[in-house]
């Protein structure tokens, strides 16, 4: 039976920012979704309420042991004014995958889709229409039991907040980013939680990110933790290379996040019969391809980042620059295809979009 989601309307409506001021994740809409879990009732009391601060005990387990997971997806406004979600089923599936790995009770996937749909419908005026903008949807779960022993919490909160966003890196969506290949720190090991969207992965990445930024880089590219040799991911996006006419991306090996934009790129490339392979690729191979003149492109793919061409890569005291291509790049072709489907400007042969009415 379909669960009823209660609704308490906000008294005040916040002022909306112009598209050029949005950036990423700085502004939040008027309402949020919330649901609680305890052992007696399971997940209960789904509700949409005014966006507001939380009151929590300082002993809540999330503050101490980081039992927390999240997701990121987007709602888009089409030129006709319709609002659509991009592959929400995949994010909800991954949310439950993260729950399982982090010992958090899983959610009813139909209820989560209903919660996202109802919340976005209430906030539909917050979905921006300007080029490169969207409404970012952030579902997340935190452990709320007040207890200091180390074991899975017996209480949780599942929430969804919304944020109108522009480009993740600032400026033009296709502005090339500078990436530093990380050699000292590692992100994830096989058997760990690198393939899970858990908050601690991002906390662990901050130091390397800070050091790379101090040297003028936008992000770090992580290598495998065992041999410091094979390319993994960028942290906020998966990575792709085009080498001698073929697109190559690291295979999902248990320490890389299975990105939904990553899988959309692979599906599109396959649909276009474009040579593509998911395999282990060493950073040495990437640099050697560059020196042979065969590294044609590098780009990242993620929900927040969409498709981000890489303009510069630094590793092992070598810096390589990928000049802007004279011809249309595969990154641009993928960007156009994905955003045109998201925005309803092109047919959606894969049924990726879900209209919010
Ligand atoms: C997303 O692309 O939605 C992500 O989760 C990356 C993020 C940490 C900004």
From TrEMBL:
CDD domains per record: BCAT_beta_family
Single annotated GO MF: branched-chain-amino-acid transaminase activity
Catalytic activity: L-valine + 2-oxoglutarate = 3-methyl-2-oxobutanoate + L-glutamate; L-isoleucine + 2-oxoglutarate = (S)-3-methyl-2-oxopentanoate + L-glutamate; L-leucine + 2-oxoglutarate = 4-methyl-2-oxopentanoate + L-glutamate
Sequence positions bearing N6-(pyridoxal phosphate)lysine: 197
InterPro entries cross-referenced by the UniProt entry: Aminotrans_IV, Aminotrans_IV_CS, Aminotransferase-like, B_amino_transII, BCAT-like_C, BCAT-like_N, BCAT_family
Domain of life the protein comes from: Bacteria
Cofactor(s) the protein requires to work: pyridoxal 5'-phosphate
Enzyme's top EC category: transferase
Enzyme Commission number(s) of this protein: 2.6.1.42
Entry keywords, A to Z: Amino-acid biosynthesis, Aminotransferase, Branched-chain amino acid biosynthesis, Pyridoxal phosphate, Transferase
Pathway(s) where this gene product acts: Amino-acid biosynthesis; L-valine biosynthesis; L-valine from pyruvate: step 4/4; Amino-acid biosynthesis; L-isoleucine biosynthesis; L-isoleucine from 2-oxobutanoate: step 4/4; Amino-acid biosynthesis; L-leucine biosynthesis; L-leucine from 3-methyl-2-oxobutanoate: step 4/4
GO biological process: isoleucine biosynthetic process; L-leucine biosynthetic process; L-valine biosynthetic process
Protein family per UniProt: Belongs to the class-IV pyridoxal-phosphate-dependent aminotransferase family.
Protein's UniProt name: Branched-chain-amino-acid aminotransferase
Organism the protein comes from: Pullulanibacillus pueri
Biological classification of the source: Bacteria, Bacillati, Bacillota, Bacilli, Bacillales
Designated gene of the protein: ilvE
């Amino acid at each position: 039976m379909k669960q009823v989601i209660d609704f308490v309307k906000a008294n005040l409506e916040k002022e909306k920012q112009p598209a050029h001021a949005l950036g990423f994740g700085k502004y939040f809409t008027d309402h949020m979704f919330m649901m609680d879990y305890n052992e007696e009732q399971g997940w209960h009391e789904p509700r949409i309420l005014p966006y507001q601060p939380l009151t929590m005990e300082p002993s809540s387990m999330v503050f101490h042991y980081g039992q927390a997971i999240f997701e990121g997806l987007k709602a888009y406004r089409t030129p006709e004014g319709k609002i659509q979600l991009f592959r929400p089923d995949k994010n909800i599936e991954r949310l439950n995958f993260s729950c399982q790995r982090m010992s958090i009770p899983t959610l009813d996937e139909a209820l989560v889709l209903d919660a996202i749909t109802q919340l976005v419908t209430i906030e539909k005026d917050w979905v921006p229409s300007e080029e490169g903008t969207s409404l970012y949807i952030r579902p997340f779960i935190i452990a709320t039991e007040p207890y200091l022993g180390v074991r899975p919490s017996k209480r949780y909160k599942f929430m969804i907040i919304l944020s109108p966003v522009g480009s993740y890196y600032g400026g033009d969506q296709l502005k090339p980013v500078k990436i530093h290949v990380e050699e000292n720190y590692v992100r994830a090991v096989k058997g760990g939680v690198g393939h899970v969207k858990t908050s601690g992965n991002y906390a662990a990445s901050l130091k390397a990110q800070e050091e790379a930024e101090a040297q003028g880089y936008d992000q770090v590219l992580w290598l495998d933790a065992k041999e410091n040799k094979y390319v993994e991911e960028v942290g906020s996006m998966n990575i792709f290379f085009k080498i001698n006419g073929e697109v190559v991306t690291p295979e999902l090996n248990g320490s890389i996040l299975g990105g939904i934009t990553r899988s959309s790129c692979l599906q599109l490339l396959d649909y276009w019969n474009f040579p593509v392979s998911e395999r282990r690729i060493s950073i040495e191979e990437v640099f050697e391809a560059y020196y042979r003149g065969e590294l044609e492109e590098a780009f990242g793919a993620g929900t927040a980042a969409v498709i981000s061409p890489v303009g510069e890569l630094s590793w092992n005291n070598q810096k390589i620059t990928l000049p802007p291509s004279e011809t249309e790049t595969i990154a641009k072709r993928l960007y156009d295809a994905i955003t045109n489907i998201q925005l309803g400007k092109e047919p959606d042969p894969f049924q990726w979009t879900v209209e919010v009415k």
